[in-house]
Design brief:
alpha+beta; globular; 2,3-Dihydroxybiphenyl 1,2-Dioxygenase, domain 1; eight-stranded mixed β-sheet
Length: 128
């Protein structure tokens, strides 16, 4: 398993975009057509920072700006099945979502208010 990306939710999307592109040196790349504005910024051919427009006002436990979640990419069906088994054994609730046009499945676990961990897997490896 590898760390996949960090998602940053911000009300100043343009400033964050300029910082990560102009200062950090990441590059704009393809992003699925989500229903909210944002950018996927790439390093070494991979989207490592996801910037998302903070369209919902901040509230207790979900401040904006914030780092929204961390994500881990699983590379095999065996890793996916092992994760699902560990979640079942630990009785951990999760949510699944398909990434539009990307052929990927996301699995989200809310550890606490404002703390989310995502696991990403190519749909071709997923049996759920």
């Amino acid at each position: 398993m590898n760390l996949d990306h960090a998602t940053i939710v911000t009300a100043d999307l343009d400033a964050a975009h300029r910082f990560f592109v102009d200062v950090v040196g990441l590059v704009d790349g393809d992003r699925p057509p989500f229903g909210i504005h944002g950018y996927w910024l790439y390093a070494a051919g991979r989207p490592v920072v996801h910037l998302v427009d903070a369209t919902v006002p901040a509230y207790a436990g979900r401040a904006a700006p914030r780092i929204d979640h961390i994500a881990f990419r699983l590379e095999s069906a065996a890793e996916w099945q092992a994760l699902l088994q560990r979640l079942r054994v630990a009785e951990v609730d999760y949510q699944l979502a398909e990434v539009p046009l990307a052929g990927e499945l996301q699995l989200f676990v809310a550890l606490a208010p404002g703390v989310v961990v995502e696991f990403v897997m190519a749909l071709r490896h997923v049996h759920y």
